[in-house]
Write a structure and sequence with these properties.
The complex is a heterodimer. By secondary structure, chain A is of the alpha/beta class. Chain A contains five helices and seven strands, in the order ααββββααββαβ. Chain B has one domain (2-93). Chain B has four helices and three strands, in the order αβαβαβα. In chain B, strand 2, helix 3 and strand 3 (72-75) form a beta-alpha-beta unit. Classes of the chains: A alpha/beta, B alpha/beta.
């Protein structure tokens, strides 16, 4: 393991254990800022809706290429996760948060088992056939790629699937 | 994550997210977000807390149906509710138990 990975993982553990440090980091860090808010009214009820998940927790199938941890600006690509994937078929590649708990239970960052249970109990209409994952540490110049290429690709795939509601979980 | 949420919403699909930082969400302005007070890496609580994870998912579905103000960040902390399977080392370290 190289020095950068060690430092990133150490900082991630520190921010998890001491939320005040994380809040201080947020106050001093520059983020993309917007004045407007996009809005699509949610029609109907969850019990009649097709629901999909998007996580930025770096989750991906073990058979897929891992997210690129070598680029300090992050990796704006995404991975598709089939709804019927078996437990243990995925892993997490993300050095910017402490995922030791999520490694034990993927639902901590990607609640796919819980969404399946809600579909089985009729609390949502149906679970989409696929879900999506990003690695949520993306800096310029990759923010442009995310906003104009990869996130719109995911939006088109979700539209093809006629998804009514997307639940997004950070990490 | 808010950036992705904005793109999905702008494409015509309703979205709701958990936020781990109200500071970031106030800048990025996702359409609908819920802050529940859990730390980084734990948007859906802690490992094997099925009760809490389902509770959080139901919370999101409920707010998705009812929120009608674009950009609203709902603060709904669950960390001191009774939770029958709240049992993990990190919960204790962060004083998240009831």
């Amino acid at each position: 393991m190289d020095a950068k990975t060690l430092i990133d993982q150490w900082l991630a553990k520190l921010f998890t254990r001491f939320p005040a440090l994380f809040r201080r980091w947020v106050r001093t860090h520059r983020f993309v800022e917007f004045d407007d808010v996009p809005w699509t009214a949610f029609q109907g009820k969850a019990a009649h809706s097709r629901v999909a998940l998007i996580t930025t927790g770096g989750v991906h199938l073990k058979s897929d290429a891992p997210f690129n941890m070598r680029d300090p600006a992050g990796d704006p690509t995404f991975r598709e996760i089939p709804a019927d994937v078996t437990a243990g078929a995925w892993t997490i590649t993300h050095n910017y948060y402490d995922h030791s708990d999520a490694d034990q239970d993927i639902n901590v960052v990607f609640p796919i088992d819980r969404l399946r249970e809600l579909a089985e109990s009729g609390e949502i209409g149906t679970m989409n056939r696929r879900h999506f994952s990003f690695m949520g540490h993306i800096l310029p110049p990759h923010i442009h790629t995310l906003l104009h290429t990869t996130a719109p690709q995911v939006a088109r795939l979700l539209k093809q699937d006629k998804v009514d509601l997307v639940i997004l979980t950070p990490a | 994550m808010g950036l992705i949420q904005r793109v999905i919403e702008a494409a015509g699909i309703a979205t709701i997210s958990i936020t781990l930082s109200r500071g970031i969400s106030r800048k990025v302005k996702p359409p609908r977000s819920v802050y529940t007070g859990f730390p980084l890496g734990h948007p859906l609580a802690f490992p094997h807390q099925r009760f809490r994870q389902l509770q959080l998912m139901r919370l999101l579905l409920g707010y998705a149906e009812t929120l009608d103000t674009p950009g609203q960040i709902v603060v709904h902390k669950l960390s001191r509710d009774s939770d029958p399977d709240a049992d993990c080392v990190l919960c204790s370290a962060l004083d998240l138990r009831p």
